Amino acid sequence: MGKMINLVYIRFGKEYSRFIMRILVISDIHANLTALEAVLAEAGDFDAAWCLGDLVGYGPDPNECVERIRNLPGLQCIIGNHDAAALQQIDVNTFNP
Fold it and tell me: What angle do CA 55, 60, 76 make, to 5 degrees?
């Protein structure tokens, strides 16, 4: 559910600057707040979080997971298919039974 990236290169014009930035990459939380909290506790300090979707679906705590993720530092988040279904952007009948 989580992975850390430690080295980031940022381009400024024609030059690249190298610095250490801890980025937490998470995905497929599926409304499991207990697991999410365990991952965040294990991750320790980080500068930014990248969420690769599927915050909701299956688990009992979708609202709590969304709120917890929403408050992470430097958040970048993309929508997953379960998130899109919860927002009625795709048909839930396209999922496996």
Answer: 15
Spatial CB neighbours of 88, under 8 Å, sequence gap ≥ 6:
none
Q: Is 65 left (phi over 0), alpha (psi -120 to 50) or beta?
A: alpha
pLDDT digits (tens, 9 = 90+) for 8-21: 555 556 666 666 78
The pTM for the full model equals 0.77
Question: Which among 66, 74, 3, 4 is positioned nearest to 29, based on CA atoms?
Answer: 66
Rg (CA), the chain: 16
DSSP output for 15-78: EEEEEEEEEEEE---TT-HHHHHHHHHHH-S-SEEEE-S--SSSSS-HHHHHHHHHTSTT-EE-
Cα separation, 21 vs 80, in Å, equals: 25
Are 2 and 24 within 8 A, CB to CB?
yes
